Amino acid sequence: MPNITLPDGTVKTFTDPITVFEVAQGISPSLAKAALGAKVDTQLVDTSYRMTKDCQLVILTDKQPESLEIIRHSAAHLLGQAVKCLFPSAQVTIGPVVEDGFYYDFAYERPFTPEDLQQIENKMQELAKANYPITRRELSRDEAIAYFKGLGETYKAEIIEGIPAGEVLSLYKQGEFEDLCRGPHVPATGYLKAFKLTKLAGAYWRGDSKNAMLQRVYGTAWADKKSLDTYLMRIEEAEKRDHRKLGKALELFHFQDIAPGMVFWHPKGWAIYQELERYMRARLLELHYQEIKTPQLADRILWEKSGHWDNFREEMFFTETENRTYAIKPMSCPCHVQIFNQGLKSYRDLPVRFAEFGNCHRCEPSGALHGLMRVRNMVQDDGHIFCTEDQLQHEAAQTIGLVQSVYKDMGFDTIQYRLALRPDKRVGDDSSWDKAEDALRLAMKSKGITWVDAPGEGAFYGPKIECSLADCLGRIWQCGTIQVDFSMPVRLDATYIAEDGSKQHPVMLHRAILGSFERFIGILIEHYAGKLPVWLSPVQAIVMTISEKQSQYAEKVANILQKKGLRAQLDLRNEKIGFKIREHTLQKVPYLLVIGDKEVETSQVALRTREGAELGVMTVDAVYDTLSQEIARKGTKT
Asked: Which of 105, 116, 381, 382 is the catalytic position?
């Protein structure tokens, strides 16, 4: 006799087990028709799911965000069905839901082509309109292996062979296509109304380059066509804003194979980098950080003591000399402890706040490298605070405040927070982890912010707050981290003299605000589509002449602005002024100063913006005031 509690608090009692569909039918035939699936307690299920005990039930239609996972899961199967219809010899392997969509990997005798992709999408539309019912059945592990081997699906059989014996597996069928899957799925293919295949890629079986190369087909699926169109427009806009394209067009940086995953900064790109560094240095000085610099190489003994050797070794670069193994530092924390350990520290000295623009290297897989967003050589705005347990919550809260202030200056108003909790592979005892996690929770509460817990996602040495910002397209970028560490100070023998005269280990707070300069600059370029705020623009003003007669005065104007600290440049070329204006507008220069005979006579300039707004004729001092006021606003929207 299950008692089923609905979202409005209504409790419905049934004498026998009952399916989600039957409950929906009893509420309203229209609800039953619209139901895509359901959430029973915390589990997503099909509408055919039978409830046998008391539970909470949310019936999902296309109005609830949770239904997207069911839609995308089902769209992956629709993709599998279409490929098998068109290419019967293709084998299906795995097809998970990913952010904003899904993919399916296929083993086929040749790579799929863009023409194949369109043909597959057309077949998916045809199969969706056919409205095949989607049904579920269960098989034992051995029955499932035999079944898929009989179909010639050797990859699927191999997947099942890795499942423990005795497991009961579920299969979903639509038309002639049947696949291994946990579900849930929509009731029929006709419920899939808005999807599109987006790209092709290669992928090794089980992610191992020693295995066969498979054909990966990516797609996206949404509840309705309007949502799909909005997403596709966002993707199109994201492509226009791709920092790799803009980096080349604006002459900011480049990459090449002689140093994979490592940035070649051009003068303009380096100007952005240096301005960002100056800004961060000033902000850290306000909070009494001491800037330090540590070596690029350290003996493996240090990394063994810190725990990185056992927990991070696969992501580190190494070198050997004179029978010693050195690691190129992937992060600065163990080296910062070495500086803390020099000289006796008292409780009165704490907190000690160290900051370093730390040059780090990590052995990222070549296939994962992605412009500035994923590199092998990065500079982190690294910081470590050594404090007492009593000071920990205050220091964490102060760091959260710094994150909020910095992101606002960069032009980001929305921040999301996650608390990444203890992973299975970790150092330290449970009591230390309890204290560390509680301190971060209290710090976030003190700042009045909300967050979500992320069980198992903490660093091996401690929990962390992950600070993510939303860009103008609504994309979420995880940047800042605040991590509590009770273990490393113990492992590396960091101590201070407590008030009672005893030796104690400090708590170590690892923190980064931007994350890495490279990635954050990439985010800024895409957020602003290359039109960086004036304070970050590599060239803030360009002084242009209409003819050669104004060259001497133009040089004087540029010199005045440069001496006042502006990044101003000259364009004295013998080109038409319209050509010059267009060229510098395409280069995203914020302010364009035009000088003709009239401006020379009156000792003024004509000022215009990269957006084409004419701001009128004014003195050089007025130009400076205009720019300096905007620079002071940083990226804030005022």
From this structure: 382
362 is catalytic: yes
The CA-based dihedral angle spanning residues 70, 76, 82, 86, taken in that order and rounded to the nearest 10 degrees = -170
Q: How far is Cα 538 from Cα 70, in angstroms, rounded to an integer?
A: 46
CA atoms of 521 and 269, how far apart (whole Å): 9
**How far is the C-alpha of 422 from the C-alpha of 373, rounded, in Å?**
26
Give catalytic status of residue 562 as yes or no: no
pTM for the model: 0.83
Q: Which residue of the set 329, 336, 362, 608 is catalytic?
A: 362
Catalytic residue among 72, 156, 333, 550: 333
**Residue 588 bears catalytic tag:** no
464 included as an active-site residue? yes
- Write the single-letter amino acid at 191: Y
Largest Cα separation within the chain, whole Å, is 96
Q: DSSP 3-state assignment of 603?
A: coil
pLDDT at 636: 78
- Find the Cα–Cα–Cα–Cα dihedral 157, 72, 367, 375, rounded to 10°: -140
Phi, psi of 600 (to 5 degrees): -65, -45
3-state secondary structure of 635: coil
Catalytic residue among 345, 464, 567, 608, which?
A: 464
Pairing of strands 352-361, 415-420: unpaired
Tokens 């050594």 found at: 386
Q: Which of 196, 241, 353, 384 is catalytic?
A: 384
pLDDT < 50 regions, the chain: none
How many helices (H) and strands (E) the chain has is answered by 20, 35
Going by C-alpha positions, the residue among 627, 264, 307 that lies closest to residue 485 is 307
Query: Distance (Å, rounded) from C-alpha 146 to C-alpha 289?
Result: 65
Identify the pLDDT of residue 310. Answer: 83
Q: Is 180 buried (19+), middle (13-18) or exposed (0-12) by CB count in 10 A?
A: buried
> Which of helix, strand or coil describes residue 594?
strand
φ, ψ (nearest 5 deg) of residue 196: -155, 140
Which residue type does 336 have?
A: H
The Cα-based distances of 254 to 242, 261, 269, 271, 539 in angstroms read: 13, 10, 10, 15, 19
According to DSSP, residue 263 is labeled: -
Can you tell me the distance from the alpha carbon of 334 to that of 308, in angstroms, rounded to the nearest whole number? 9
**Residue ranges of E strands in 223-374:** 253-254, 264-265, 290-291, 297-299, 317-321, 324-328, 352-361
For residue 383, the model assigns a pLDDT of: 96
